[in-house]
Specification:
The protein is α/β, with parallel strands linked by helices. The chain has 14 helices and 18 strands. The chain has a 7-stranded mixed sheet with strand order 6-5-14-15-16-13-17, sandwiched between helices. Strands 8-2-1-12-18 form a 5-stranded parallel sheet. Strands 3-7-4 form a 3-stranded antiparallel sheet. Helix 1 packs parallel to helix 2. The longest helix has about 30 residues. It is globular and about 65 Å long. The protein starts with a strand and ends in a 9-residue tail after the last helix. The model has no long low-confidence stretch (mean pLDDT about 95). The structure holds flavin-adenine dinucleotide. Flavin-adenine dinucleotide binds next to helix 1, strand 3, helix 12 and helix 13.
Length: about 375
Amino acid sequence: MSVIIIGAGLGGLSLAQGLRRAGIPCQVYERDESAEMRKQGYRLHIDDVGDTALREVLPPNSHELFRATAGRALPRTNIYDERMRLVTALEADGVQLNINRFTVRQILLRDQEVRYGKRFTHYEADDGGVTAHFADGTSVRGSLLVGADGVNSPVRQQYLPHAQVVDSGLVQLYGRLPLTPATRKLFDPEMFAVFSMIIAPDRTMVGFAPVDYPEPVADASARLVPDLRLRDHEPYMTCAVGARRETLGRSDVELAATAPADLKKLAFGLIDGWHPRARVLVEHWDAEATFPQPIRTSIPVEPWPPSRVTLLGDAIHAMSPAAGAGANTALRDGAALASALAGAPLLEAVAAYEAAMVDYGFAVVRESAENGRRYLGQNPLTTAG
Ligand SMILES: Cc1cc2nc3c(=O)[nH]c(=O)nc-3n(C[C@H](O)[C@H](O)[C@H](O)COP(=O)(O)OP(=O)(O)OC[C@H]3O[C@@H](n4cnc5c(N)ncnc54)[C@H](O)[C@@H]3O)c2cc1C
């Protein structure tokens, strides 16, 4: 068996690590020219689902490094109103970790051979195998093609053209605030241990959460995985200002063409009149780190017959970030598919993986959409788009 994985995001790399542990040959093809090329967000919240998947797919020392570079969080989200009065605390269960997204990717990329600059265009499948074609005119043949190619997945568009991804009605402007002795004073002590959201009556939202390292990153790597040089080691607060699209008043094309410093000004304008403490947080953002993120969601579809093509992560169940679950679910998919392929013939393995994934994946899409509707004004799932 040889597995072609399209996309070196969290889900594709989780699968690649799991297959490597199971001794199943695979190759990852990524359209970006390098792992560092694009801003993909800063902090990830990882819960039991993601942590369990990482434990399953990574060598034990790499998993220990992941745990050693992740900050511990209290199991709740605090919601304030725009006058900074605590409205409610949403309780969660189990492991709650805050980690720098690029650190997880670097750990997942270790010992992987990713072919960069390979933009998948289409595939051809027959009884003997599947051939993936790339924009540079090359192609590769394998036994199974896995679309781990994110929310706009070209693999999904060819394989399940009826599976829609739609606008959620929300746009977020993401930023980060470097944590220095001076900026630490802007936050209450509890804000270093939880995800905090300030939400106004029109559902405009400021969210922030820390990435702080329990021990110096270089010491953790030297102790656990000496051959891996982790790039990031400075603590920060990841911050987002989110609003309904009509409140923001800019199209995706306009937002994409807006300079980071102007996006920060736009974010600041959205919280005009809010409590000074809320405004000061956005004022201290690193302007150059700001980027726009339109929020899209998949619409759940019925199961389909298994074949030599399958999907994982955002490629099949993209969701709003309102449950902090997209990355966790993508990591779970990678671990689940690797484990299925290690234990059964190809089509049986794909069938078992898809039966479970369609169930838990779309359950989280629904939960995320409901949280997004309740707290952030996301379009209801049935009428989204
Ligand atoms: C700002 C932000 C914050 C988030 N925070 C959290 C969080 O705290 N917790 C959580 O669980 N989730 C979070 N999410 C969601 C999470 O990031 C996604 O669910 C997760 O990244 C999905 O992983 P994936 O591997 O499926 O897709 P991706 O990470 O999107 O990876 C897809 C990969 O495929 C590549 N690709 C695309 N098209 C092609 C092509 N044609 N050919 C080759 N390669 C291609 C892309 O370049 C990319 O590298 C957040 C999302 C955002 C945007």
